[in-house]
């Protein structure tokens, strides 16, 4: 069986190619499949320009799938074994995830990862399996973005200042949150800014590098530039032009986890919803634009969404606001 082929392979070489933080596919896959996975990961990084976070999630999803398949078949699978998998095999994997109590959203993402790998393998003539396309993903509950109202947002900014251990940390956290709330940035986009990209009060737009390395220009409120400059003036660590703009207390790049923890503290302090996360501030930005009659296509550009359907999720947030705009602008509504 192809699954016996990888026993004598050099795992150190594989680990070097996939990165030390990624799982080693040699533990659950034969040599030919390991090489295919390494090529797929390189394609994700070089051609798809997927972020390190996305590549890490894909690697772990595929590793978990192959771990199941290895146990299901009784040996480490190779490309020929992937060719032979049936709809029943994929359903058995999904059933196992359900029995383990994994969320449907997690399973849907994992199935998407597996399909992505199989589609890439088919394009490169490494494996052909139509069964994976016939497997239905678990039905997901409709996710409606949770936006904050103006009072809650003010409470968040006030609490950030109170909870910070040092004044400069307070200025840093306020600046980051204003970038999310005032410009609609993703947390990763804000933390990816360098010192030379720091906006000032005089700047009218901010150039943002988003998913897929795509750039967009976002209008900049003066208060955002003021907050960033106030943080820079107070930061005790040396900052060179190419350094990360936002630093942690020890001088390293600030992690998204620190901001998530800060908002978790705020939720507990003032009784906000569990949905109050860094991403909720971005939702709030879009929802408030929509409430004010903003054009959906323009909001799509500001958010950096590749598809308008992603932006359209916000229409479920503010149906009342959309009705108000309709009543004010549509000729029939006026009549």
Automatic annotation (TrEMBL):
Site-specific tyrosine recombinase, which acts by catalyzing the cutting and rejoining of the recombining DNA molecules. The XerC-XerD complex is essential to convert dimers of the bacterial chromosome into monomers to permit their segregation at cell division. It also contributes to the segregational stability of plasmids. SUPFAM superfamilies: DNA breaking-rejoining enzymes. The keyword Hydrolase does not apply. Residues 1-25 are annotated as: Disordered. Signal peptide: none annotated. The keyword Repressor does not apply. InterPro entries: CB (IPR044068), DNA_brk_join_enz (IPR011010), Integrase-like_cat_sf (IPR013762), Integrase_catalytic (IPR002104), Integrase_recombinase_N (IPR010998), Integrase_SAM-like_N (IPR004107), Tyrosine_recombinase_XerC/XerD (IPR023009), Tyrosine_recombinase_XerCD (IPR050090). GO terms for molecular function: DNA binding; tyrosine-based site-specific recombinase activity. Belongs to the 'phage' integrase family. XerC subfamily. The lineage of its organism: Bacteria, Pseudomonadati, Pseudomonadota, Alphaproteobacteria, Rhodospirillales. This is Tyrosine recombinase XerC. Residues 31-122 form the Core-binding (CB) domain. It is found in: Cytoplasm. It comes from the Bacteria. Forms a cyclic heterotetrameric complex composed of two molecules of XerC and two molecules of XerD. Pfam families: Phage_int_SAM_1, Phage_integrase. PANTHER family: PHAGE INTEGRASE-RELATED, TYROSINE RECOMBINASE XERD. GO terms for cellular component: cytoplasm.
């Amino acid at each position: 069986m192809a699954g016996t082929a990888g026993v004598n392979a050099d795992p150190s070489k594989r680990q070097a190619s996939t990165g030390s933080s990624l799982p080693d596919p040699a533990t659950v896959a034969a040599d030919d499949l390991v090489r295919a996975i390494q090529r797929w990961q390189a394609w994700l990084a070089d051609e798809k320009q997927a972020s390190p976070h996305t590549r890490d999630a894909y690697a772990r999803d595929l590793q978990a799938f192959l771990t199941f398949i290895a146990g299901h078949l009784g040996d480490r699978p190779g490309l020929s074994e992937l060719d032979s998998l049936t709809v029943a095999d994929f359903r058995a994997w999904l059933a196992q995830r359900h029995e383990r109590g994994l969320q449907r959203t997690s399973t849907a993402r994992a199935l998407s990862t597996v399909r992505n790998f199989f589609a890439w393998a088919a394009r490169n003539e490494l494996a052909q399996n139509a069964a994976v396309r016939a497997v239905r993903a678990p039905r997901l509950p409709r996710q409606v973005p949770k936006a904050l109202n103006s009072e809650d947002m003010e409470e968040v900014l006030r609490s950030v200042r109170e909870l910070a251990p040092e004044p400069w940390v307070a200025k840093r956290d306020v600046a980051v949150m204003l970038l999310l709330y005032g410009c609609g940035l993703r947390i990763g986009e804000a933390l990816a800014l360098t010192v030379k990209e720091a906006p000032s009060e005089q700047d009218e737009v901010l150039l943002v590098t988003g998913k897929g390395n795509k750039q967009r220009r976002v209008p900049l409120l003066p208060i955002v530039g003021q907050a960033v400059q106030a943080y820079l003036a107070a930061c005790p660590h040396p900052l060179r032009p190419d350094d990360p703009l936002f630093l942690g207390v020890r001088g390293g790049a600030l992690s998204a986890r620190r901001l998530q923890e800060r908002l978790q503290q705020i939720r507990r302090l003032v009784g906000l919803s569990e949905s109050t996360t860094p991403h909720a501030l971005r939702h709030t930005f879009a929802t408030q634009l929509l409430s004010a009659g903003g054009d959906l296509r323009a909001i799509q550009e500001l958010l950096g969404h590749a598809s308008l359907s992603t932006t359209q999720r916000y229409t479920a947030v503010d149906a009342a606001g959309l009705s108000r705009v309709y009543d004010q602008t549509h000729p029939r509504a006026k009549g």
